Protein: CP27B protein
Organism: Chauna torquata
Amino acid sequence: LLLRPRAAEAYAGALAGVVGDLLQRLQRLRDRHPQHLVPDVATEFYKFGLEGISSVLFESRLGCLQPEVPRDTETFIRSINTMFVMTLLTM
């Protein structure tokens, strides 16, 4: 389901911060790569999704897009990924 525009507007500020952090992270990754590419952009979008969802659902940031992702956050990311994979295997 999609939110009505007025309801979605309440989350615009929080999500704008997440988008800004994603852009900064992608730029840092490009700057480090010899051909100015993001080596695994799918993983970065996955982290972006988790960060955005957490900012709306929990009103808190996980740190998925920080230059150094916290160890607990990395564990959480792997756990969520494992859950998705196991769900797909049972279908």
The chain has one domain: 5-89. The chain is about 70% helix and 0% strand. The radius of gyration is 15 Å.
